[in-house]
Amino acid sequence: MRVVITGADGFIARNLRVRLKELKFEDVACIVRNSTHAELVDALTGADVVVHLAGVNRPKDAVEFEQGNVGFTRQLCDILASSSTRASVIFSSSTQAALDNPYGRSKRGAEEVLQRYSQESGAPVFIFRLPNVFGKWARPFYNSVVATFCYQAANGLPFTINDPKAPLRLIHVDDVVAAFLAKIEHKDSQGGFVEAEPVYDTTVGELAEILQTFVDSRTSLMSPRAGTGLVRALYSTYMSYLPPSSFSYSLPVYRDARGEFVEMLKTPDCGQFSYFTAHPGVTRGEHYHHTKTEKFLVLRGKARFGFRNIDTGETHEIVVSGGEGRIVETIPGWAHNITNIGNDELVVMLWANEIFDRARPDTISMKVAQ
Fold first, then answer.
1. Known catalytic residues?
2. Residue 205 phi/psi, 5° resolution?
3. What proportion of the chain, given as a percentage, has pLDDT over 90?
4. How many CA atoms lie within 13 A of 241 on its CB side?
5. CA-derived radius of gyration, the chain
6. What is the pLDDT of residue 48?
7. Do residues 172 and 202 lie in contact, with contact meaning Cβ atoms separated by under 8 Å?
């Protein structure tokens, strides 16, 4: 299958090209702004699918909208119509095609050209009226406000917000690419207006607030809820704008005679992660909790976990070595400690179900051995 991409050096195209390469598409022809007419004809000859991403959205003169969006689309369709192939076309239009402004009219005009090509050739044309697309490699101050804000946040620059309540409809580039691939891989699908999903509704102010939590997380250690939905996609996008000099950051390390303790991250409602070390023979812990629970994973060394029920006095011991992949949990109402019984430094990863609150620490001293 030959896939032709117009606007192949653009933001969406760069992401699409990577996915096509991952999926082992070997015949991918790329058309960019300075490609010649002959190169365009050569690329389209024998094409099976054309992903039409080329267009003008920020011209110096409004007349360029007509030339770049309608004119080039007409040129593309004329070449396809004169060839012997029945190439399907995937077109990245815009939600602004429904609006009466120069850009919207030019996008709508390009849609109409493609619809005529489909009617005359019988080839399916898929028109995606996309909202604001964001994701890695979008150009700040050009492609979207998300790209601009992510660049500013990642580089310590302030946001410029005129109206924090201004609505935004957003879609992540990975979801756009997935929708395109579904049409590329199922060429016989019926054409028409199609949608990429999910689309997220937010505001400029909310966008700025979310991005600021990402910036703050390196000092507060409070991780945002970045596992699903819009925040997940925004977090991925923000991270892609970090310069290499910001690929790492330091955490406070608390050292004493026993070893060291480091908090790695905290969550709004799922506790926090940390690690600690203990020198040979050192015992840590010697306390109990009423509600807090913890999970310990020994990464290196050999540890003995001791437990005592604070009411009945019942005791229990567990010995764990690094590499076993065994979790030891602390139980409310049981005093507990951990002793390095090996010859090397003990390294233990720790999750607690709640963030440590100095005002209500829920950590009461009690030795396991009475």
1. 103
2. -65, -45
3. 91
4. 24
5. 29
6. 95
7. no
Largest Cα–Cα distance in the chain? Answer: 92
Q: Find the mean pLDDT for residues 196-212.
A: 98
For the record, the structure tokens of 201 come out as 């509704």
Edge-to-edge, what's the strand order for the sheet holding 334-340? Answer: 315-321, 302-309, 334-340, 283-288, 364-365
- In the three-class reduction of DSSP (H, G, I as helix; E, B as strand; rest coil), residue 30 is classed as strand
What domains sit in the chain, N to C, each tagged with a CATH number? Answer: 2-130 (3.40.50.720), 254-365 (2.60.120.10)
Strands 334-340 and 259-266: unpaired
Tell me whether residue 334 is exposed, middle or buried, using C-beta atoms within 10 angstroms of its C-beta: 0 to 12, 13 to 18, 19 or more.
buried
Which candidate, 20, 294, 366, places its Cα nearest to that of 177?
20
Those residues with Cβ within 8 angstroms of residue 334's Cβ, 6 or more apart along the chain or in another chain:
288, 307, 308, 309, 310, 316
pLDDT for 357 equals 87
Q: Residue 362 is encoded by which pair of tokens?
A: 């829920």
pTM score: 0.92
Confidence band, pLDDT 50/70/90 cuts, at residue 358: confident
- How many Cα atoms are found within 13 Å in the side-chain-facing hemisphere of 22? 9
Residue 11 has pLDDT above 80, yes or no: yes
Residue 187 pLDDT > 70, yes or no? no
User: Rounded distance, CA 299 to CA 294, Å?
Assistant: 16
State the DSSP H helix or E strand holding residue 216, giving kind and residue range, or none if neither: helix 204-220
Strand partners, 43: none
Distance CA 67, CA 207 (A): 34
Q: What are the C-alpha distances in Å from 306 to residues 303, 310, 318, 319, 329? A: 10, 13, 7, 9, 11
User: Per-residue pLDDT tens for 102-143?
Assistant: 889 999 999 999 999 999 999 999 999 999 999 999 999 997
In angstroms, rounded to a whole number, what is the distance separating the alpha carbons of residues 5 and 245? 34
Q: Binning pLDDT at 50, 70 and 90, where does residue 188 land?
A: low
